[in-house]
TrEMBL record:
One of its GO terms (biological process) is response to oxidative stress. The lineage of its organism: Eukaryota, Viridiplantae, Streptophyta, Embryophyta, Tracheophyta. This is peroxidase. Belongs to the peroxidase family. Ascorbate peroxidase subfamily. Binds 2 calcium ions per subunit. Binds 1 heme b (iron(II)-protoporphyrin IX) group per subunit. Residues 1-20 form the signal peptide. It comes from the Eukaryota. GO terms for molecular function: heme binding; lactoperoxidase activity; metal ion binding. Heme b binds at residue 136. SUPFAM superfamilies: Heme-dependent peroxidases.
Amino acid sequence: MARVSPLFHSLLLISSLVLASQIHVSSGKLVPGLSWNYYLLTCPKLERIIRKHLEDVFEKDSGVAPGILRLFFHDCFPNLGGPDFDVPLGRKDGLGPNATAPDNLPAPFFRTDDLLRGFGNRGFDATDVVALSGAHTYGRAHCPSLVNRTIETDPPIDPNFNNNLIATCPNAESPNTVNLDVRTPVKFDNMYYINLLNRQGVFTSDQDIAGSPKTKEIVNQFASDQKLFFKKFSDAFVKVSQLDVITDRIGKGEIRDKCFVANKRRSSMASVVEEVVELAQEI
């Protein structure tokens, strides 16, 4: 069973495999067109190539890891302790940017009902939402996203923690950043939920899930059971990997030669060759 995804998504999804834990998840029904061994015929060493590259990148700059998670969520890390799980392959990159995509992303000032409504419209339940929020166990927040958190008392905030936030981010123009996890900022674990129980969630959207009747029990469960959090995070992450999948071969998606730019138009012969290869992979 492969643990990769096509070019751009390979870098995003394979990053989850560099997490160092014992959890292995690959269950659930796949979106038509995806498979667990998409590159078996065309690039059987892809997983090893990308894993090695990401290990080198993360060793030089561990801050790249949360950025990759964020990229994946919006369109890990060696020795960080997070879950290791398989992801389905075969999704294509779009032929151009989606100008409306940012409008569909959760904002740091969202309340729990906002999150549940937005994610619920895409097939996610409360457990999925709380588990995916746990990705904030690693990474940093920029000051402009924290202004409302330091001036509002709902959801509640630990006074000392609030003073530290204000000292770091005295105004929205400050270029400073804040660790999303104040206890273990460079480790993927369940301390994010411990922070919430101590009213030390950095974003409003984080802290609110610890107080909402719809999600607070899930927060308590994850705070006391890291293995359960890893399992539910893995399940939800795989669900995210199957959102808005482009798999057809006719004009809607492509496997990019360079992940940050759409391919140049290919000749009709190249398109035919690519289609034959994809058909062979599905047999």
